[in-house]
Write a structure and sequence with these properties.
Layout (H helix, E strand, L loop, with lengths): L6 E5 L2 E9 L2 E8 L5 E5 L4 E6 L3 E6 L2 E5 L4 E4 L5 E7 L1 E8 L7
Length: 104
Amino acid sequence: MKTTFPVVNTDPNVTRQVLADHPDLMVVAFNFAEAGAEGALHKHPHVQSTFVKSGRYIFTVEGMQTEVGPGDSFVVPTNTEHGCVCLEPGTLIDSFTPRRDDFL
């Protein structure tokens, strides 16, 4: 069943759109419009898997920085501080378990 979710501004030059959701899992696209756009440091009780669809980013996870690009993926454990800075515009696909009810 296809449902269209709205595009939401999250940070300057960053938007998010839920692509699919179920109480146990949610898939979300984060679009970064320009270099320098940030996904602010934060943490949440959900396990997060990130796939880099396009663009390049510096991710900080628990104080450790790593550069990632297209095709890279990683998992952020529950309650782990993380965020990113965009180096080249693109899209991240994040999956959350359980779903992020705050995104609905």
